[in-house]
Design goal:
Largest sheet: 3 strands, mixed
Number of strands: 5
Shape: globular
Strand order of the largest sheet: 3-5-4
Radius of gyration: 24 Å
Helix content: 55-70%
Mean pLDDT: 94
Low-confidence stretches: 1-26
Strand content: under 5%
Number of domains: 3
Order of helices and strands: HHHHEEHHHHHHHHHEEEHHHHHHHHHH
C-alpha cells in the first residue's frame, strides 16, 4: 500500500529556488504552511482510507480506495495545487523546523507526482507483497470493538471485488505497455492468491473476527454480524481473490515481460534513477552506488575471513559457507524452537535498552510466525507496526517456512533489526511524537528506517550480543547481504546483470541459505531500488555517529545521540545530517 500513501524524498532540486515570490505575508507564513499541511493531510486520509485506518483515523473504515484512472488523475491534480500553494509561502522567514517540514512536504509531493508520471500504479505488486497481501492483513489492522466496527469491516470485504477489478484494469495497462513484473519471479506467485480462495468462510483468514466478539458488541448482535460477515467473506473477499487468481493465471503471468531490468521498462532508465533517489534520499547514479557496494563487500569480506580463522575452519570461504548451510546444528528442528529462540533474543535486548537509549516507547511487541499464505515467497522476518489507537501491539514476524533455510546463527542480527533496537523501537517512538505535522510522523523514508534497522544490528556488539563467533559471522553475513544489495540491485537494473549473475554473487559472498538467496534476488528484481535503502542509510548514521564522537570526545553521549536520530520522526539523510551537526554544535563545552 505504500504507493497509495505520500512518499518522502529530499533532493537538492526540491528546494525552493532563490528569489521565489510569495503570496503569503512573512508573519503569516508559518500559519499558512501548517494550514496547508492540515488540508493536504485530510485529503490524503480521505483518498487513502486503508492508510487512514493504519494511522488511527476511522472515519473511512467502511471503504477502500478508488483506483480508477479518473480518480488517479484527480488526485494528481490536487497535489499539483497543493504544491503551487506551498511555493507561494515565503520559506526564508520560517523557523528551522518549519523549513524542514516545508522541504520535506515539497519533496514528498514532487515524488508523488513523479510516480504518477511514470504510472507506477500499473505495477501494484512485488514478489512478496501487493495490494492483495496487504488486504489479507485487514482483520489485524482494523480496530474491531463495536457493532459499527464490524459493519465497517464487512463493508470493506464486500468492496473488495470492485477494488480488484480496478487494480487489474491498471495492470492490464501495464501489460499493454510492457510495464509488468518479470515473468521469472512469478513462478508460484499464484499461491499468495489461491490461499484465499476457499470453499467455506470458516476456512478464510477473514473469518477470524466472527469466531468471537469483544465485550463492546452486544450478544444480541452476534448472530446477525456473523451471518452478514460470513456472507461478505464469501461474496466479497473470496470472490475478489478468485477473480484476481483468474486474471493472474490467465493473463498477467503468461503476458509478463521476459526481461528483468528496470532499465528495460518504458522510460526505465529515468524511472530507476528516480527510484534510487526515492529510496536513498540522495542524488547518486547507479554507477556510484555500485562502487560504494563493491568497497563495502571488500571490507566486510576481510572481517568474515577473520572469523573463519578464529573458529579454526580448515577450508576456503566457499567451503565454510557450505558447512554453515548444511550442518544441522545451525538449524531449528521445529517452528516453535525458532520462535522461542527469536523471542529470547529480543527479550535479552529489551533488558539492555536503557543502557543505549534515554527515551523508550510504551508500546510492547510480540513475536509471531509469518502467515502461511505469505511464507513461501517471503523474507526471513519483518516488523509489522501496530495500528495506531488499536488494541494490538507491534509484531516481529519470523518466517518458519522451510526451516532448513532459517539459520540460527543469523537470528540475533534478524531480531535486533526487526524488533529492538530496530524497527519496533523506532516505529513505537515515532507513534508517540508530538508537535510534528502528521505527514512527518507517518512519512515513509526507507533510507532512514532501514538504515536504522541495519545500524541496530551492529549496535548489538555494544550490548553484549554475537559472543559466539558463528553468530558474529551471521551478523557479518547480514551486513554483507546489504552491501551486496548495492551491487546486485544496480547490476540487475542498470548495468546489464542477469538473474543468475546476481544469484551467484549473493550466494558466493554470504552465508544466506540458497532458498533465501533466490527469494531475495527475486525481491530486488520485482522492487527496484528499495534494497539500496539499508546500506546507504546505515552508512550515513554510522558516519554521523563517528563525526559526533570525533567532535565531542569525552562529551559524546551515545544515548543523547540516539535521541537526536529518533525523536524528530523519519528524516531524509541530508536533513538528518543537518540535525546531528546542529546537536553537536549545541553540546556545552567542558
Amino acid at each position: 500500500m505504500k504507493r497509495q500513501a505520500i512518499r518522502c524524498l529530499v533532493l537538492a532540486a526540491a528546494y525552493l529556488p532563490a528569489g521565489a515570490t510569495s503570496s503569503a505575508p512573512a508573519e503569516g507564513a508559518a500559519a499558512e504552511l501548517h494550514r496547508l499541511f492540515q488540508e493536504a493531510w485530510a485529503f490524503q486520509l480521505q483518498e487513502s482510507p486503508l492508510f487512514a485506518t493504519a494511522v488511527g483515523e476511522h472515519r473511512y473504515d467502511d471503504r477502500l480506495p478508488s483506483m480508477t484512472p479518473a480518480d488517479l488523475e484527480r488526485r494528481a491534480a490536487a497535489w499539483r495545487r497543493f504544491l503551487e500553494r506551498l511555493r507561494g509561502i515565503e520559506r526564508s522567514g520560517l523557523e528551522p523546523d518549519d523549513r524542514i517540514s516545508y522541504d520535506m512536504f515539497q519533496a514528498e509531493v514532487e515524488d508523488t507526482l513523479a510516480e504518477h508520471r511514470f504510472q507506477a500504479w500499473r505495477m501494484p505488486l512485488t514478489v512478496d507483497s501487493g495490494f492483495h497481501t496487504s488486504f489479507a492483513r485487514l482483520p489485524a489492522q482494523m480496530t474491531l470493538t463495536t457493532v459499527q466496527d464490524y459493519e465497517n469491516y464487512a463493508a470493506r470485504l464486500r468492496a473488495f471485488p470492485e477494488y480488484v477489478s480496478q487494480q487489474t484494469a491498471l495492470m492490464r495497462r501495464g501489460l499493454a505497455a510492457g510495464f509488468t513484473l518479470p515473468r521469472v519471479v512469478l513462478d508460484g506467485y499464484e499461491g499468495t492468491i489461491a490461499a484465499h480462495v476457499v470453499a467455506r468462510p470458516e476456512d478464510s483468514v477473514f473469518d477470524a473476527p466472527f469466531r468471537s466478539f469483544p465485550p463492546g458488541v452486544p450478544a444480541a448482535e452476534h448472530e446477525r454480524l456473523r451471518t452478514e460477515g460470513r456472507a461478505a467473506v464469501m461474496d466479497g473477499a473470496v470472490a475478489g481473490y478468485r477473480a484476481f487468481l483468474d486474471f493472474m493465471t490467465r493473463e498477467y503471468i503468461p503476458g509478463a515481460r521476459t526481461t528483468t531490468a528496470a532499465a528495460d521498462l518504458p522510460d526505465g532508465k529515468a524511472y530507476y534513477r528516480h527510484l534510487i533517489g526515492h529510496f536513498t534520499t540522495l542524488e547518486l547514479s547507479p554507477e556510484e552506488v555500485h562502487r560504494i557496494g563493491l568497497g563495502e563487500v571488500r571490507r566486510i569480506r576481510d572481517e568474515m575471513q577473520a572469523v573463519i580463522r578464529e573458529v579454526g575452519f580448515q577450508g576456503d570461504f566457499a567451503a565454510f559457507l557450505e558447512f554453515l548451510r548444511t550442518d544441522p546444528r545451525f538449524y531449528a528442528k521445529t517452528p516453535e524452537e525458532l520462535l522461542k529462540q527469536a523471542s529470547f533474543i529480543a527479550k535479552r535486548m529489551d533488558g539492555r535498552l536503557p543502557s543505549l537509549f534515554k527515551t523508550l516507547p510504551r508500546l510492547p511487541y510480540g513475536v509471531e510466525p509469518v502467515p502461511d499464505h505469505m511464507a513461501p515467497k517471503y523474507t526471513a522476518g519483518r516488523y509489522v507496526p501496530a495500528p495506531v489507537g488499536g488494541t494490538r501491539a507491534g509484531t516481529y514476524w519470523v518466517n518458519t517456512y522451510a526451516l532448513e533455510s532459517r539459520p540460527l546463527y543469523a537470528l540475533e542480527a534478524l531480531s535486533l533489526h526487526e524488533a529492538v533496537p530496530g524497527h519496533h523501537l523506532q516505529n513505537a517512538l515515532r507513534a508517540e511524537l508530538t508537535g510534528l505535522p502528521e505527514f512527518r510522523r507517518y512519512a515513509s523514508v526507507d533510507a532512514y528506517g532501514e538504515g536504522w534497522g541495519l545500524y541496530s544490528e551492529r549496535l548489538g556488539l555494544e550490548a553484549g550480543f554475537y559472543r559466539d563467533p558463528y553468530s558474529n559471522f551471521g551478523r557479518l553475513t547480514y551486513e554483507m547481504w546489504r552491501a551486496c544489495r548495492l551491487v546486485v540491485d544496480t547490476g540487475l537494473h542498470a548495468l546489464g546483470w542477469s538473474r543468475q549473475q546476481a544469484l551467484d554473487y549473493l550466494a558466493s559472498n554470504t552465508a544466506l541459505s540458497l532458498h533465501e538467496v533466490r527469494t531475495e534476488i527475486d525481491r530486488y528484481i520485482s522492487w527496484p531500488g528499495q534494497a539500496l535503502a539499508y546500506k546507504m542509510g546505515e552508512l550515513k548514521i554510522r558516519e554521523l555517529r563517528s563525526l559526533a564522537e570525533r567532535e565531542l570526545g569525552t562529551r559524546f553521549d551515545l544515548r543523547a545521540f540516539h535521541d537526536v536520530v529518533l525523536l524528530s520522526g523519519p528524516l531524509p539523510l541530508p536533513v538528518l545530517e543537518e540535525k546531528v551537526k546542529a546537536w553537536i554544535a549545541s553540546v556545552p563545552r567542558g
